[in-house]
């Protein structure tokens, strides 16, 4: 952090943003009070890179609405479903790897319905920083228990497994009345 919100002036502590804190920090850090022109150019260059990296304003807005985040980075690989995996080490650890989900998976339109279970097992380890080697450079050994074709998470839908019960339901579904 370049500027401290609190400063120690000898007797007491200054509150955040107080006049004495600004005066103390301006004496302590004289060259860091303003952004230099090179830093402004760097900010503008990154903003233009965001626009170009997502395919213009429309692509940037679609990415913002789908993932609630806009990042650009190095494309590490694409899995068998079309998900794209990116990495940028300028972001802090835990946010430096991400996936942009495909818009169609196994015949289902997934443009606005993304799910964390859409990441295959071979990419899960790399995405969650369990390994530094992506499956594009170090393919994993095949496992018998992994599904060949992705199965969607059906929790909360009509296809979800519900165990049989011999007791009566306490809460019943609402069935709308039929129009006459």
TrEMBL record:
Accessory subunit of the mitochondrial membrane respiratory chain NADH dehydrogenase (Complex I), that is believed not to be involved in catalysis. Complex I functions in the transfer of electrons from NADH to the respiratory chain. The immediate electron acceptor for the enzyme is believed to be ubiquinone. It is found in: Mitochondrion inner membrane. GO terms for biological process: response to oxidative stress. This is NADH dehydrogenase [ubiquinone] 1 alpha subcomplex subunit 12. Belongs to the complex I NDUFA12 subunit family. Its main location: mitochondrion. It comes from Hucho hucho. It is a peripheral membrane protein. Keywords: Electron transport, Membrane, Mitochondrion, Mitochondrion inner membrane, Respiratory chain, Transport. GO terms for cellular component: mitochondrial inner membrane; respiratory chain complex I. Complex I is composed of 45 different subunits. InterPro entries: NDUFA12 (IPR007763). It comes from the Eukaryota.
